[in-house]
TrEMBL record:
<dbReference type="GO" id="GO:0071555">
    <property type="term" value="P:cell wall organization"/>
</dbReference>
<keyword id="KW-0449">Lipoprotein</keyword>
<dbReference type="GO" id="GO:0005886">
    <property type="term" value="C:plasma membrane"/>
</dbReference>
<protein>
    <submittedName>
        <fullName>Carbohydrate esterase family 4 protein</fullName>
    </submittedName>
</protein>
<keyword id="KW-1003">Cell membrane</keyword>
<dbReference type="GO" id="GO:0098552">
    <property type="term" value="C:side of membrane"/>
</dbReference>
<dbReference type="GO" id="GO:0046872">
    <property type="term" value="F:metal ion binding"/>
</dbReference>
<dbReference type="GO" id="GO:0016810">
    <property type="term" value="F:hydrolase activity, acting on carbon-nitrogen (but not peptide) bonds"/>
</dbReference>
<dbReference type="GO" id="GO:0005975">
    <property type="term" value="P:carbohydrate metabolic process"/>
</dbReference>
<keyword id="KW-0961">Cell wall biogenesis/degradation</keyword>
<keyword id="KW-0472">Membrane</keyword>
<keyword id="KW-0732">Signal</keyword>
<dbReference type="InterPro" id="IPR011330">
    <property type="entry name" value="Glyco_hydro/deAcase_b/a-brl"/>
</dbReference>
<dbReference type="InterPro" id="IPR002509">
    <property type="entry name" value="NODB_dom"/>
</dbReference>
<feature type="domain" description="NodB homology">
    <location>
        <begin position="28"/>
        <end position="211"/>
    </location>
</feature>
<keyword id="KW-0479">Metal-binding</keyword>
<keyword id="KW-0378">Hydrolase</keyword>
Length: 238
């Protein structure tokens, strides 16, 4: 699915709701994003991005396809390699079905894990399924987060075949909107090994530049603060 507008439900921070971006704002820039990890294909995705000189954005869960602490090395490799790490909740629920306290815990739990593993507090959040309401935006603001959606969906998470995902990138390269904010998932081997290399080549041939989400929405800070990562202890488990 493809759209080319920015949804700016964004209210100024003082009103208590997070900014919402569904598109990049920097002319001619693509942001490649990857949800639902960290997972076993993350390192190979990193290798592909690094070989192409591209920085991606990874919206990670705490305990979805696997436990975040089991893939801590690839998450550190992503962070120290200049890729952006964002929040995608602890275990990927539809936040609009939860209570205030449950939503808040989904934010806090994954943030604590990210802080332990890479020593940073993300400033960007993607709601599972793209589903949010006023409460989610208020809690996101309380956690200092910008909310990120997308305007190109590769379709991998809904079971679409490789040819379909490639077709989405073909379409955007042909229509050449000003910017592209692409949703992919790092939990599929077809995305890691087939769709991603294809997309990079197709978009590069179309003349786009590549950046992280923080860069593509206007050069905002990717993290609220950074520090040293924690030291492994018995709390590093799901």
């Amino acid at each position: 699915m493809l759209a080319t507008t920015v949804i700016d439900d964004a209210s100024p921070w003082g009103t208590g709701e997070a900014n919402v971006f569904s598109s990049c704002v920097v002319e001619n820039m693509v942001a490649l994003t990857f949800d639902d990890g960290p997972y076993i294909y993350e390192q190979d995705i990193l290798n592909t991005l690094n070989a192409a000189g591209i920085k991606g954005t990874f919206f990670v869960n705490g305990n979805n396809w696997g436990c975040i602490y089991d893939q801590w090395q690839s998450l550190q490799d992503a962070y120290w390699g200049g890729h952006q790490i964002g929040s995608h909740t602890w275990d990927h629920p539809d936040l609009t079905t939860l209570s205030w306290d449950q939503i808040d815990q989904e934010f806090s739990s994954v943030e604590q894990a990210i802080q332990k593993i890479v020593g940073a507090q993300p400033a960007f959040f993607r709601p599972p399924y793209g589903s949010y309401n006023d409460e989610v935006l208020q809690i996101a603001a309380n956690h200092g987060m910008n909310v990120i959606l997308w305007d190109l969906d590769s379709g991998d998470s809904t079971g679409e075949p490789v040819w379909y995902s490639e077709q989405q990138y073909d379409a955007v390269a042909a229509s050449h909107p000003n910017t592209v904010l692409a949703l992919n998932h790092e939990t599929y081997d077809t995305t890691a090994y087939q769709v991603l290399p294809y997309a990079i080549q197709k978009l590069r041939d179309a003349g786009y530049t590549f950046g992280t989400v923080a860069e593509c929405v206007g050069g905002l800070e990717a993290y609220q603060w950074t520090s040293q990562p924690g030291t492994w202890d018995d709390s590093w488990h799901c």
